[in-house]
Design brief:
Number of strands: 7
Number of helices: 24
Largest sheet: 5 strands, mixed
Strand order of the largest sheet: 3-4-5-6-7
Distance between the termini: 103 Å
Strand content: 5-15%
Structural class: alpha/beta
Radius of gyration: 32 Å
Length: 545
């Protein structure tokens, strides 16, 4: 009885994986063709990249049904690299290096850091990528030759707008109507992109419409390519390869988080990136387009019932069946139809939900989002991400620095009050306690140091660092600067350090030795009592002397 139940469960799992693999392949098919054409590498590179990456990333990846292949962000970076080099052999070197970097990343702690990338950076980048996809397809949609950059695309569109091709425009508009207007209920069963692909291609063939088409697609299994290169070319390729590796890894990680939430399972980030790296190495060596785990396809597979990695394998086999049996049809797919599909993909990539809260968002977040967006669209998306993270980090540092305060509290002992009144004019001495509330780091160090310029009348200053956060290099140097300044004013410094790790850090850099190790305390009370004792002693000596 137990064996029958187990056998039945296995059949249900297999059925779900087969259905999920087929559904995700249907979603992937038009996208892979469109991305391949959009990058300039060709439809064959797009479809075979989808097959190879999904198969090997599925085999070597986690048990979840992770569907991989070329995606929008990866396509935009790939198109930029291909346009810059205009040499397929050089592009393969970039792809191969990126794949190797991805494998290296999987053995580090970087996969755990991706989740700390600020949301405005991700949103700005995704909005930029979506906008680029839309802008760069507008010319192709109306039958005008495409351009390699958004700016040149817009310029060409303005100049040649009245020279549009009527057949391309009709098919393009029809494609947009299908992909945007088909009800969600129908779209879940029959993806709108595949409907648009087949319907519009059929119409263009039936009425012999004179439009640009894919023309040729290879159904042969790609052969291994070992590009000829030299050290100089490799060094030149490193920045672009690193950018592709980071983008592929980031998108895969985000897809993994989505899959986790849908399946209530836990993806292993390092294993996920390792499998993606292996798959992309094989894509590179076969001249196919690299990619990442694709969120839309993975969600489609899971919702169709897929629960294991078998779905990824089924996806690849189904795509092979499609291109081998429908080659003639695929070659007749109009480019304007693929442009319409890519415009829909670009729209889906755009972070629409951010528009709902943009009026209420903090100004710092808006600065980061807009910087990343405009740099992505009009300059360089690789530079945009780095600039966005840098600006976000600086703004965060400013916020923390602004929240870090130094409170001054004067301690006067009743027992020495009489002495102070007697010697007030000749010798003003007080004990002051400085509380550093918040993190003492490079952002707040300058602000705190500026408050120690003049402390007239102070003889003992107790610096109470109440946080458990370690000091960075800037803060350590700032602390040394504070000590030097105060000592130049003949002020004795007492430190109150409550955290043992912070105290160990200060001991390692010899801070206590600069003020005397006996002047370091674990609590403020002991430090104040020590200062009082020293003041009384000096007062007595002065009176007696």
């Amino acid at each position: 009885m137990f064996d029958k139940v187990k056998h039945k469960n296995l059949l249900l799992i297999l059925k779900g994986d087969i259905l999920g693999g087929i559904v995700s392949a249907i979603v992937a098919f038009p996208q892979a063709l469109a991305f391949g054409v959009a990058t300039g590498i060709g439809a064959s590179a797009g479809i075979w990249g989808c097959i190879i990456l999904c198969f090997f990333a599925g085999i070597f990846g986690s048990k979840l049904p992770m569907i991989s292949g070329p995606t929008g962000p990866v396509a935009i970076v790939t198109a930029s690299v291909f346009a810059m080099y205009n040499d397929f052999s050089a592009v393969i070197v970039v792809f191969l290096l990126a794949s190797i970097f991805q494998i290296i990343i999987s053995y580090t702690q970087l996969p755990n850091i991706v989740k700390y990338v600020p949301y405005p950076v991700i949103s700005g980048f995704m909005n930029g990528v979506g906008s680029i996809l839309i802008i760069m397809q507008l010319n192709i949609l109306i039958g005008i030759e495409g351009s390699a950059s958004p700016l040149s695309s817009l310029e060409k569109l303005i100049i040649n707008f009245m020279n549009f091709d009527i057949s391309s425009l009709i098919l393009g508009i029809l494609t947009l109507l299908i992909v945007f207007c088909i009800p969600k209920k129908v779209n879940r069963i029959f993806p709108s992109q595949i409907i648009a692909l087949f319907v519009c291609t059929y119409i263009s063939i039936k009425y012999s419409m004179p439009v640009e088409r894919i023309s040729q697609i290879s159904i042969n299994i790609p052969s291994i390519i070992f590009p000829n290169t030299d050290l100089e070319s490799i060094i030149k390729a490193i920045p672009y390869a690193a950018a592709i590796a980071v983008i592929c890894s980031s998108e895969s990680m985000l897809t993994g988080l989505v899959a986790d939430s849908l399946t209530r399972e836990k993806t292993q980030p390092k294993k996920l990136l390792l499998s993606q790296g292996i798959g992309n190495v094989l894509c590179s060596l076969t001249g196919s387009m690299p990619g990442s785990a694709a969120t839309m396809r993975t969600v489609a597979a899971i919702r169709a019932g897929a629960t294991t990695k078998v779905a990824a394998v089924i996806n690849s086999f189904f795509l092979i069946i499609v291109i081998t049996s429908c080659t003639k049809f695929v070659e007749q797919v109009p480019l304007c139809v693929l442009a319409g599909i890519l415009i829909k993909i670009g729209y889906d990539i755009i972070d629409v939900k951010i528009l709902k809260v943009i009026k209420h968002a903090p100004k710092d977040d808006l600065y980061v989002l807009l910087l990343v967006f405009f740099l992505t669209v009009f300059y360089n998306l690789i530079f945009a991400v780095g600039a966005g993270i840098t600006l976000a980090a600086l703004l965060y540092a400013k916020r923390v620095a602004d929240s870090t305060s130094v409170g001054i509290k004067t301690i006067i002992d009743d027992e020495i009050d009489a002495y102070e009144k007697e010697l007030a004019e000749e010798y003003k001495y007080t004990i002051r306690v400085f509380h550093i509330d918040g993190q003492f780091f490079f952002g707040s160090a300058t602000q705190i140091v500026s408050q120690f310029d003049e402390l007239l009348g102070t003889k003992y200053l107790i610096l109470n660092y109440e946080s458990s956060s370690l000091l960075d290099i800037s803060a350590i140097f700032a602390l040394e600067d504070i000590i030097i300044r105060l000592q130049s004013q003949n002020i004795k410094i007492l430190l109150v350090i409550k955290n043992e790790d912070v105290l160990k850090q200060l001991n390692d850099v010899k801070i206590p030795s600069q003020i005397g190790e006996h002047n370091v305390f674990f609590n403020e009370y002991d430090a104040v009592e020590h200062a009082k004792f020293r003041v009384k002693k000096k007062l007595l000596k002065k009176i007696q002397g």
